[in-house]
């Protein structure tokens, strides 16, 4: 669903054979795969072992990082090039990942990544656009509301206008540009929409606080306004990205 975001950023920053990219919250590796297809040397870290395993299947099918690809569960240090070559681009594309931790936790990870990047390198942060332009925010509000009874850490909250800039400054980075990209979420039918949204991890805390059946019921109800006559589910969204400099 975020392919338009990845493409817009890579095009703007001219990602190619000279790019040494580090992805924070690389997830299942799609963004890294797209960068690698442009010739970039890619590395990624993610806290979710299941998603990281999918990334390994995509990027390291033979389990041999001969092309310089490195994936790890932990901080940027676990994928740093032993030869000492610094990264020259850092991304934190996953808005759920960015919102899941506190700003201080995320800024610490960004600062650690920036310390392993060349001076002047771009660091790209991404997040949801304005709520009124993000149809999926209604479904994600369900996740946050159902998680509240346990005070569980829901992985979504509304995006503030200056959230990305504030996060960059907290990490010691200099904001240098931004953009917005349309990223519609489209599904073949309601079951696919529910499964797809549940797979993001945004509803895990809600399921722990209530139960899976309740989450599925309320999520399905929140998606009905976007169910089209042909049975597909279509939710227009806008994502925002910020380019900051090390």
3D structure, described in words:
The protein has 246 residues and is of the alpha/beta class. It has a domain at 3-134 and 157-185 and 237-245: Vaccinia Virus protein VP39 (Rossmann fold), CATH 3.40.50. Helices cover 38% and strands 19% of the residues. The chain contains 10 helices and 9 strands. The chain has helices at 3-12, 30-37, 49-59, 95-100, 103-115, 137-147, 163-170, 190-198, 204-209, 212-223; strands at 20-24, 41-45, 70-72, 89-92, 122-128, 174-182, 185-187, 233-235, 238-245. The strands form 2 sheets. It has a 7-stranded mixed β-sheet with strand order 3-2-1-4-5-9-6, sandwiched between helices. It has a two-stranded antiparallel sheet with strand order 7-8. Helix 1 runs parallel beside helix 2 and helix 6 packs antiparallel against helix 10. The chain is globular, with a radius of gyration of 18 Å. This is Methyltransferase type 11. It comes from Streptomyces varsoviensis. One of its GO terms (biological process) is methylation. InterPro entries: Methyltransf_11, SAM-dependent_MTases_sf. Residues 22-63 form the Methyltransferase type domain.
């Amino acid at each position: 669903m975020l392919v338009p975001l990845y493409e817009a950023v890579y095009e703007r920053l001219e990602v190619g054979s000279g790019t040494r990219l580090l992805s924070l919250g690389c997830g299942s590796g799609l963004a890294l795969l797209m960068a690698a297809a442009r010739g970039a040397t890619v590395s990624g870290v993610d806290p979710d072992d299941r998603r990281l395993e999918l990334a390994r299947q995509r990027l390291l099918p033979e389990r041999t990082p001969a092309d310089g690809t490195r994936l790890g569960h932990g901080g940027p240090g676990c994928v740093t090039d032993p030869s000492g070559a610094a990264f020259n681009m850092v991304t934190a594309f996953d808005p759920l990942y960015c919102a899941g931790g506190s700003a201080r936790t995320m800024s610490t990870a960004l600062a650690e990544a920036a310390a392993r990047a060349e001076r002047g390198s771009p660091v790209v942060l991404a997040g949801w656009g304005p709520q009124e332009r993000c149809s999926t925010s209604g479904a994600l509000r369900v996740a946050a509301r159902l998680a509240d009874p346990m005070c569980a850490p829901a992985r979504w909250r509304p995006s503030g206008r200056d959230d990305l800039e504030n996060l960059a400054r907290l990490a010691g980075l200099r904001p240098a540009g931004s953009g917005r990209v349309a990223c519609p979420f489209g599904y073949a039918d309601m079951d696919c929409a529910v499964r797809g949204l549940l797979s993001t991890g945004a509803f895990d805390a809600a399921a722990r606080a209530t139960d899976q059946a309740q989450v599925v019921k309320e999520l399905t109800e929140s998606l009905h306004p976007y169910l089209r006559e042909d049975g597909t589910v279509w939710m227009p969204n806008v994502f925002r990205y910020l380019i900051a400099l090390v």
